[in-house]
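Lab notebook, bench 4. Still working through the backlog of constructs that have no structural model yet. Next entry is a single chain of 273 residues. Request: give me the structure tokens for it.
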Amino acid sequence: MTAASLALHSRRFTSLLATSTSVLSRIMSTHLERTNGNTREPEVENCTVSSITDISPTVKLLQLAPERPVTFKPGQWVDFFIPRTNMVGGYSLCSDPQSPYLELAVKYSTHPPAHWVHKTCKAGEKVQVRVGGDVFLEPDSRVKVVLLIAGGIGINPLLSMIRAGVDTETKYHLLYSAATVEELIFFDDLEKLTASHDNVTVEYFITKGTVKLDNLVKANRERISPEAVNKLVSDYKSRFDESDMRCFLCGPPPMIDFLSKEIKMKCEYEKWW
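Model written out:
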């Protein structure tokens, strides 16, 4: 092996080690530690689980009825406190802020709060939440175009933004990627929104399996690429001033790391899971 080749391998190993260390650190730290610097509401709110529904093979939808109205902005999340454990979960809200209910779509994992949701939780359970987060779309925003890029369970806060803004003049354009068709949670909800609101457009991307969703809708058989996003960015920039546009990104950390560096406009996101 030449010196140049050895140096190249060394740089790749160092980069891989740094990435692995970062991922391991994220996994081992708690939700409260990862979000220590974020804004939070001072009050913890009492809620009752009004329903729990399977919306994919790996995701359950929790509908929570708070004891008193809970105010949040589209894009924010909650600290999630469950019975009989001190471990706190963190989940983005997917509901419309105007709804009397709070909705959380929780993907299965062995992390105690998620495991509790999937294996123990039932309607009538008492839980607590506290609203937090610094990346959101203000309800009175006068922005003209909102570009949304979702990977997997990252659809949650972006769906909240769409639900809150469908009756405004803002254009919402969502690029939504999942591993399989079955994991495209909220597909029916999104199709109803696009059918009833001219200001909502959704493009689907599937990375595994078939791309046929129904007789009318097909997904792209690929990941969301910088080229696909930048084509949209260029198109909207040709019609709108960039100051009238916002771009929100939510998905797995590697996806956020990659796309946020390649997209040719400012992307807003948080990485805390």
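Notes after review: The longest strand covers residues 45-54. The radius of gyration is 20 Å. Flag for follow-up if needed.
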